[in-house]
Amino acid sequence: MDILRRNNVTVTGSADGPVVMLAHGFGCDQNMWRLIVPALAERYRVVLFDYVGSGSSDLTAWSPERYSSLQGYAQDVIEVCEALGHEQVVFVGHSVSAMVGVLAAEAAPERIGTLVMVAPSPCYLDDEGYRGGFSAEDIDELLASLESNYLGWSSAMAPVIMGNPERPELGQELTNSFCATDPDIARVFARTTFLTDSREDLKKVSVPTLVLECSQDAIAPREVGAYVHAAIPSSRLVTLDATGHCPQLSAPEATAQALLDFLGAQR
Amino acid sequence: MSRVDEEPEPTGTGDEAGTTAAFTALLEDSAEELYESAPCGYLSTLMDGTIAKVNATLLSWLGLECAAVVGRVRFTDLLSIGGKLYHETHFAPLLQMQGELRGIALEMKTAGGGRLPVLVSSVVKYTSGGEPLLIRTTVFDASDRRAYEQELLRRRQEAEQARAEAEQARMEAEQARQQAEADRGRLADALAVLQKSLLPDALPALPGLEAAGYYHTASPYQLGGDFYDLFPLDEDRWAFFLGDVCGKGPQAASLTSLSRYTLRSAAHHAPEPIAALTTLNTVLHERFTNGGDPRYCTVIFGQLEPQPGGHVTVRLASGGHPSALVLRADGTAEFLPTPGGLLVGILPTAPFATAETTLAPGDTLLLYTDGLTEARTGPARDSLFGEDALRTFAACQAPATAQELITALSGLLESFGDGLDDDTALLALGVPTHPPTRPATNRPG
């Protein structure tokens, strides 16, 4: 199987630079990173990809068995690294992908040398002595709305993203694939994302790690960032003055700068 | 269209002014009023989602006060948990990239804890320098549409359920069909074994005589009623019979079995053909017809007695059975008529017709049941093969050994196809031109 085609792998930036792998979270695809890629590309070899089931990946390679656990996504990461022959990469994971990076680093330590966790959360559900931001009722309502397919991720979403005549520079291909997730696949991804408790896995992280959180995040509150930082002794916590769950979009310059500062300090 | 017979409508500046004033009073002259009371919700947010302005319509839908919202909460704070997640993972990234989004289905929270299904469209307003400044959003109440969608979803689930049930029923029907097919196969196997038990396993080897038999089964699921046998009476003489009982199925089979064994035992006690048939008649009549359940058969019973010079004398008696046919060595074929013989088993005492002939080397005697002569040869129900055609066919074969004749006739039966719808038994007895070194034996077909 051609892994690079399966995961729609894109490689750009400095040919000789250290490898930085950017992994999207639940929702869209590698285009989430497009605003910070130029800043990274000057000094780093930038690897972008879509998880199987997302973006322009090969949907025929998707199976509910493999992608019902975060290990399946971690396997995608390891297989892309193997296909490219990269070792000791800097893995930048957004949202649920931050935990995918933790699992990949544990399973294949020679592949992952550094972790950057953007807006991470090891557990979205509130627990005793832990605030994940979502009550059990919230999760139930969320899963029910996924099952009933009422939100915009229903197939009714498709016409909305079919092109944008006012901004032709975006390109048809981009607008068609970006966020256009198969509803059944999105449901499995969401269940995996919001029902997994990965808090125990944090303790196994030994590589240098940057925890990058937003000051106002509706999905991963500040308490969660602090928890992740505390659970990983080798981590640094940086709080961006940014709103929302996607600082690479809402505050791309600050996000890129925080990344570059951290990586520069590592060298 | 003008009304020439009436005075023109009055025109004057005073009236025009009055009309304009009336329209102005009717129309909402204030943009503010238009914004606040529009039939859809309006809100504007900063790029971080903080609500900067919201109209009265949306506030009333959500049961919120303006002061509690503006500058205090973000758009995502007004969304249900699913809506909030969708906003963060899809809506905001798409809006950031495309600058606008239309008709996205979300759910908003109301002050009373309820959920308001809405359709949201947003557009980013940019500064003259191209920097995103704020987001303008319209919100449409989609409660009715949601109810409609729920109805559609329910109908689809019902349709899927019905489809699954239909598929299940189809699979069960297929299983039943396979079971029935297996049952039919087992029935056919059992019937074939039973049918075989009504015929001799193999015809015995006769000195100076060749015998061949054939049995055609019309249906593997129906026991036929034809039978034949060939067996020794003593060191020199042999007996044979061939018959056809009334009806089909298990009752016919039991009658066949009874007839066969009665004739066999009768032959040993009173081997004369008439005596054997009379014994069978008595047994069948007492057993069935006397009990109000008349059953009967047609049968030819005969004796074979070798003569000097390789000749064989045949003496036979018939109870209502089609005449035997003799193929001569000279290429002719003739019936051996046995007119007047009665069905066996119908009356307490019955007359039977006898006939006698001598088979010379090269001659062959043929016995058959009416399945052969009553086979249909054309589309009409009454276009039957018939005795004349049989004699002509046999004459074309003569001279023929017993096996040659049976082979030719079985080919003929096959050529009838669907026209042959009854069981058919054939028994041929022939005197070889040159006595074989070893007596020939033949199994039934």
Describe this structure in words.
Chain A: It comes from Streptomyces kronopolitis. Chain A: GO terms for molecular function: hydrolase activity. The complex is a heterodimer of chains A (267) and B (445). By secondary structure, chain A is α/β, with parallel strands linked by helices. Chain A has one domain (3-123, 198-266): Alpha/Beta hydrolase fold, catalytic domain (Rossmann fold), CATH 3.40.50. In chain A, 38% of the residues lie in helices and 16% in strands. A 7-stranded mixed sheet of chain A has the order 1-3-2-4-5-6-7, sandwiched between helices. In chain A, helix 2 (37-41) links the parallel strand 2 and strand 3. In chain A, helix 3 packs across helix 4 (96-107) and helix 5 (136-148) packs antiparallel against helix 7. In chain A, 51% of the residues are buried. Chain B has helices at residues 13-26, 31-36, 56-62, 66-69, 81-98, 143-197, 249-269, 273-287, 370-373, 386-397, 402-416; strands at 41-46, 51-54, 100-109, 115-126, 132-141, 210-216, 226-232, 238-245, 297-306, 312-319, 324-327, 333-336, 353-359, 364-368, 424-430. Chain B has 2 domains: 13-141, PAS domain (Beta-Lactamase, 2-Layer Sandwich), CATH 3.30.450; 198-430, PPM-type phosphatase domain (Phosphatase 2c, domain 1, 4-Layer Sandwich), CATH 3.60.40.10. With 445 residues, chain B is an alpha+beta fold. In chain B, strand 11 (324-327) and strand 12 form a beta hairpin. The radius of gyration of chain B is 51 Å and the shape is rod-shaped. In chain B, the strands form 3 sheets. A 5-stranded antiparallel sheet of chain B has the order 2-1-5-4-3, sandwiched between helices. The chains are: A alpha/beta (267), B alpha+beta (445). At the A-B interface, helix 5 of A face helix 5, strand 3 and helix 6 of B.
